[in-house]
Design goal:
heterodimer, A: globular, B: mainly alpha
């Protein structure tokens, strides 16, 4: 319970402060105007969305070695949250893009396309999981799809690094020799805040998943 | 034993609507649609022709995997074979035969491309065929494993497109990029070939391994 309270406290303080900082503190980038402020939301959320499937794949590997259903629940939770954060990216991206590039969706951009495909792979994972009735088979096949989702996530991460990109999406924020101090401070604070949010949501979703699993087992017992 | 399995898979491909012949005619149809709608008015760039080739490759694999699995399910062959041979052998035999069929179809397709598209050149035939075959191999491994696991779901092969398409598209994007990079660099650019080989080994090993785990646990 102490962890719960701590996480609630951290999220309720850090997320509003991060959003407020992003809107007020860093200087405006002249080429993009005020629209660049969405960067402090878009990039941290995208990071969480990208490593959610990787985390799920690690849990899936643990499941395959131990056959304990807890790891399958953790992997499922991780993918659910990854999908939620990916939706955040897909909504915030076009707002920023419309202001910065003049179009909400650049069809030639490898990062945009690959991110959308990552969302589709996660949808496939959820639908397929829903369609399997046997719990044991569901967990094994979900592990397989989790590993493939992780591959898709790595390829999405690499899309701006490995593909000769004719689109507008900027490269890695870390690889350009850095940002100004005000930007850097706001950015890293936002990264931290959205990670706290991820942890809190992870805890809540995992618990609800456990309750659903318990309810299902009671139903089976009652016939 | 492996040869017997390969023979069985060839018979299955032959049963599925003319098999290889239907595959070739499908790829030529798609090619002609693009030829008559675009190439006759303005020549497609080299990159676009390459993209078109990969798109056809993608469709071919999707169709042939679906056909082969559907035929086998209807005949009940998969479960009959499982009683005397391991699931990974079946998986690799099926993948090998489908890949062989698509590689023949790929060769014909590249030749026909050279005839109809101005920016497709005969002197790069071997390189193009190599990349088509490497891409096919990964797509086949992924497609067959997805097809087999879709049998475990309530809606059977109906769910196959939902599984196969999103998981194949990253492979399609990166395969196309690897081939483009190969032709841009001077000499034989090994990293592009290694990337596609890595994909093939990854999807092949993962597919075989998971089918074995699934069989053991069920």
């Amino acid at each position: 319970m102490a962890v719960d309270w701590l996480l609630w406290l951290l999220v309720s303080i850090s997320v509003p402060v991060a959003i407020f900082m992003g809107l007020m503190y860093p200087n405006v980038i002249l080429e993009q105007g005020l629209s660049h402020r969405i960067f402090y939301f878009h990039v941290p959320v995208a990071w969480v969305a990208l490593y959610g499937p990787i985390l799920a794949s690690v849990f899936s590997l643990f499941f395959l070695f131990s056959k304990k259903v807890i790891w399958d629940h953790l992997a499922f939770t991780s993918n659910q949250l990854s999908f939620l954060f990916a939706l955040g990216v897909l909504f915030s991206g076009p707002i920023w893009a419309y202001s910065a590039w003049g179009v909400p969706w650049d069809r030639t951009d490898a990062r945009l396309q690959s991110f959308f495909i990552l969302c589709l792979t996660l949808v496939s994972y959820f639908v397929f999981r829903f369609l399997i009735q046997d719990p044991k088979k569901k967990a094994i096949l979900s592990s397989y799809l989790s590993l493939l989702c992780a591959m898709s996530s790595i390829l999405t991460w690499g899309a701006i690094r490995w593909i000769e990109n004719p689109g507008n999406h900027p490269g890695s924020v870390l690889g350009k020799g850095g940002m100004d101090v005000d930007m850097k401070l706001t950015f890293w604070f936002s990264v931290l805040a959205f990670h706290f949010l991820f942890l809190l949501l992870f805890l809540l979703t995992y618990r609800s998943e456990k309750i659903i699993a318990y309810r299902d087992s009671l139903r089976v017992e009652r016939g | 034993m492996f040869l017997k399995l390969v023979k069985k898979e060839f018979l299955l491909v032959g049963r599925s609507l003319g098999g290889l012949l239907s595959l070739v005619s499908l790829s030529l149809c798609v090619m002609f649609i693009f030829y008559t709608s675009i190439e006759v008015n303005e020549s497609l760039s080299e990159r676009s022709v390459r993209g078109l080739k990969w798109a056809i490759l993608f469709v071919l694999n999707f169709v042939l995997v679906g056909q082969s699995l559907w035929e086998e399910r209807e005949a009940g062959g998969w479960f009959a074979s499982l009683s005397f041979v391991s699931v990974s052998k079946l998986f690799f035999a099926k993948s090998f035969v489908i890949w062989l069929c698509t590689s023949i179809s790929n060769a014909l397709l590249i030749l026909v491309f050279c005839v109809f598209f101005q920016n497709a050149h005969m002197d790069s035939f071997l390189g193009q065929w190599l990349f088509s075959n490497l891409g096919s191999l990964s797509l086949v491994f992924l497609g067959v494993s997805m097809g087999l696991i879709s049998e475990e779901s309530r809606v059977k092969e109906i769910v196959l497109p939902l599984l196969q398409l999103p998981f194949s598209i990253p492979l399609f994007l990166f395969g196309l990029e690897a081939e483009t990079r190969f032709w841009m660099e001077s000499g034989f650019y090994f990293p592009s070939v290694f990337l596609l080989l890595f994909f093939a080994v990854f999807y092949g090993a993962l597919g075989g391994l998971f089918l074995e785990i699934l069989k053991k646990e069920s």
